[in-house]
Amino acid sequence: xxxxxxxxxxxxxxxxxxxxxxxxxxxxxxxxxxxxxxxxxxxxxxxxxxxxxxxxxxxxxxxxxxxxxxxxxxxxxxxxxxxxxxxxxxxxxxxxxxxxxxxxxxxxxxxxxxxxxxxxxxxxxxxxxxxxxxxxxxxxxxxxxxxxxxxxxxxxxxxxxxxxxxxxxxxxxxxxxxxxxxxxxxxxxxxxxxxxxxxxxxxxxxxxxxxxxxxxxxxxxxxxxxxxxxxxxxxxxxxxxxxxxxxxxxxxxxxxxxxxxxxxxxxxxxxxxxxxxxxxxxxxxxxxxxxxxxxxxxxxxxxxxxxxxxxxxxxxxxxxxxx
Length: 323
Ligand code: DGY
Hints:
Blueprint: E1 5-8, H1 14-23, E2 25-28, H2 37-44, E3 49-52, H3 59-62, E4 70-73, H4 83-88, E5 92-94, H5 101-117, H6 119-127, E6 147-151, H7 155-168, E7 171-175, H8 181-187, E8 190-191, H9 194-200, E9 203-206, H10 220-225, E10 231-234, H11 243-251, E11 257-260, E12 280-282, H12 291-309
Parallel strand pairs: 1-2, 1-3, 3-4, 4-5, 6-7, 6-9, 7-8, 9-10, 10-11, 11-12
């Protein structure tokens, strides 16, 4: 029997590739880092399944994908999927929730600690032979017993709140579309309006999905509400924050520091002023980047794509496309 064709645009571990090839014919185009829209239109023409990470799936592409049944994201975020267009063309979309929660939460704690205790800046100081004295010029800010404000209390937000509450005795504030009584009970977390949260938090963490509503949800007026000693952390999507406003807030010392894993443009422009600021930690979008977690994500995405092209219902359909 003819196997369904699956287009693969992201390098996969051998074991994951073997699993897919048991059920599907693989069209492997994972060597190129990116493909132009024109290349994608040609590649997608025969495919019944597409396995990728971050490739924009919109009506313009779907028009050229007459056999396509499923787009499987190797990521929990799915802002690359135009779910309205996918609904119109009857294409399923899946993502990889849960398996990365603890790994991303670990990284957020690393960002908080690094910014508060200035570990990157001071590591550089020591390596460059600049350690001449041990006075207040090396002081940082305490993480333990401080107040963490989480904007977006989803699964990853909860994993962070757990570490912050039980590992660092932090007080947890949160905003979310819905109040979460179980989170309030487990972590003694307190619900706040966004404005209250921004005013009261020592660490302000954005952990929300990127949608039309959340795009630039943090702007200049929000930085002006934060404490001058606040540390701002973003490990979800760069477009949640007006990056120009963040740069201004740091230049004008409206906040103490920022720790970022994501940017409005990725890879980040090498001329971006954030890259020259000593009080900004800049990581290259590595929230889920450990070997085990990336393997688990790839395998989950593979199971989803195989299910989608073989007439089964994939386990991880994105909420907007669930029937
Ligand atoms: C995710 O899974 O959404 C991570 O941010 C990687 O894109």
